[in-house]
Amino acid sequence: MPQKDQTLLLGTAREKITPREGVPLVGYPKPRPNTGIAKELYARASVFAPPGSNSPAAVLVVLDTIGVSAELVARMRAGISEDFDGLSENAIMIAATHTHSGPRLYSWYKDGQPMEADAETVELTIAGVRKAAKAAAGQMREVSGRIGLTEAYWGSNRRVVDPEGQATNIWKDLEGLHPGYFNANLRFICFDDVPTAKTGVIFEHYGCHPVVGGQESTRVSSDYPGYLVDRLEAETGARMAVHITGAAANINPRDPVQPDVTRARIMGEALADEVLESIQLTRPVNLQPIVTVREPFEVVLGPEATGRLEHRSTETPEGLQITSEVQILRLGEIAFIGTPGELFAEIGTSIENMSPFRHTIVLSNTNDSLGYMVTESAYREGGYEKRLAPAPDIEPVLLAAAHRALTKAAAG
Question: Domain segments of the chain: what residues?
Fold first, then answer.
């Protein structure tokens, strides 16, 4: 039997959040009213508690959507916290898979003017999140943990820098020849039921944009993550598998933007197979204590960001300033660290390298949507991501906040 610090209570549940036909899909320049369903969208909720507890100590929700706003997350946190006595909103983390074949759930500001999300879809999602969290809390079981790591070369850095030092996006890279940084690590955690030792839940973590479906694909889909988790569940018998999109802002599938979004099945099932081939090589991991940390940070907006983010800014002597956050959910030797917006792969690796934890899982598109969290070098190189970055110095600001959060979480 596992030792006391090697187990926790884990409950999981999912709730469908697929929008009605006609609600626009986002992620590409042209409008795309959806024409039906290729792959359902879900809110997947996981609740964690120490053994012997009757209520959750922390909640992680992963949504099949392009992102979440701070305002939307505040509403979700408030609803979940209301359902569980003693659960702080600080212990609730909301992340997005970043599929480009789903609806937008928050207003998008362009030149200072809001482009509103579909209100019915927003309310459907908020209700689904709350329902999934409540259902998960009613199904908590004691589990132990095993963690594994393999590599999967289905992604590629889409930014190509010319001899003059200027970057251009080249989305396809069939031969994997782009020289930019790509972290091929594919991490996974198996939560095994005590005392049967059967795998009940699997978390899987990979840093690659869910953009197999392209501009011409008009059906709702969770893209490759949906097929990935389906295969893991089918092959292992797990109650639920959860995909976590890592630092993927500048990382695309090698063969992206297909007109038929069901092409995402090939990539998703191949990644699942990489996990399944390595699943017997996992190592036990301690899962106690459960610790949550929310660490705020402030950044002064760059000139490109004012039209998108000035509505939530404060005037300071240095310029328009916004506040966001880094959040950590610690399960013993594992630290899940959520960052706002689309995180560059290099920054994700920097966070992993600074972490005092044996295992660090970086979640992008978590708790807020700020645009592209670019490296300082990428900002100098220009290109698409620079135009949607919150500030030229977002990298050191974010890394400093991550370091503070990790230090606090390690202190327990």
Answer: 290-411
